[in-house]
Amino acid sequence: MQKLQKGDSKLLNAWAFYDWANSVYALVISSTIFPLYYGALFRQKNIEEIVLFGLSIRSEALISYVTALGFLIIAFISPLLSGIADYMGNKKFFLKLFCYVGAISCMSLCFFDIDEDKIVLSLISYLFALIGFWGSLVFYNSYLPDIAHKEQQDKISAKGFSLGYVGSVVLLLICLAMVMSVDNDLERLQMMKYSFLLVGIWWIGFSQYTYYYLPNNKNENKLHKNVVFNGFKELLKVWQQIKELKSLRRYLGAFFVYSMAVQTIMIIAAYFGEKEVQWGSDSKRTTGLIVSILLIQLIAVLGAWLTSKLVAKYGNIAILIGLNFSWILICTYAYFVVTPNDFYIAAAFVGLVMGGIQSLSRSTYSKFIPEGTKDTTSFFSFYDVAEKIGIVIGMFTYGYIADVTGKIQNAILFLILFFIVGLLLLLRVPRK
């Protein structure tokens, strides 16, 4: 096949289509069907805790600890592998590797069980699915400047996001129809297992279109010790620069703190709703939770749009302060959530501020990078690693408090402290 030139529409569309392929993990595995399946297993066996490596751990804490471990691994290997891929030109190899690891791990979740002899292997499947998804995104995103000219990047990136949203919703609705087509709990669990298979097949199958057109720029460079640690050296260089930039340094500190709470809430929302809300029946729980997640996603789009309008009038930092204050109110409300209607209201407000704070945080960071900076990729690599480490701290804190106190609401309430500290740190950030 003839190599397509940078900026070619066929190449751009093929790149964007990977979002259609992989976003099913984020919606079906991370946000809806797997949390439902995980909670149903514990209810079915009528247990609250699992003994693992001699420790008794509550179900909600267990999944938090494994998630934190996954993001810790990603934070470590991302700069390491990025440095190797840039030097050797084999990012397509790593993209495929993480895709196949993630997709096959999703399919292996069909065998996920909490029996003593299966729990470790089951959690490893969950862990590798998470690493596969987030690891592949590192190399997928890094392709953007290779395949698109600067004036094309915003548009094709948005197209990828849109394709990912549509594709994941399509598969989620198929999975929901499968789960709701049967009457008893055992059959529902089986349909959920089939959903995990579909995610893996969908991810691998549709990604082939992307791989067919993406360029393979492998060169003759040989791997050596200095190259392995190039990524970490670049992060260290960025940190040395950030220390000299007062506005960026203060903003990054504030972002690091409040992002811990934002990302943790996004990950645990489904587990919270599955366990703490009084749905009345398993079928209502399944339908209600999926409706809630779809509600969050739809309103997040509106939230991002509203935020962009408010920023134009009041400025980035002022709106970020307002969003952090909104999160404090939402977390306080979440402490008292009991009924499905309570959860729907909380989900609507989470969606409204979630879409805004995610898009605004990244664009604010971009604005604080000095004009004329050539190596912006390294600055954003630093941003991504900071975000992942924040998720590790947030998820571990959430899991530990839920485990020790025996109540998820206490962990949600504790996240308020992150938002309060983040708000106070934002007040110290210069407006320009």
Automatic annotation (TrEMBL):
Annotated membrane topology: Multi-pass membrane protein
Subcellular location: Endomembrane system
Organism from which the protein derives: Flavobacterium lacisediminis
Protein name listed in UniProt: MFS transporter
InterPro entries, per database record: Atg22-like, ATG22/LtaA_families, MFS_trans_sf
Keyword Glycosyltransferase: no
Chief localization: membrane
Gene3D superfamilies documented for this protein: MFS general substrate transporter like domains (1.20.1250.20)
Ranges in a coiled coil: none
Keywords: Membrane, Transmembrane, Transmembrane helix, Transport
Record keyword tRNA-binding present: no
Membrane-traversing stretches: 20-42, 62-81, 93-114, 120-140, 161-182, 194-214, 251-273, 285-305, 317-337, 343-361, 382-402, 408-427
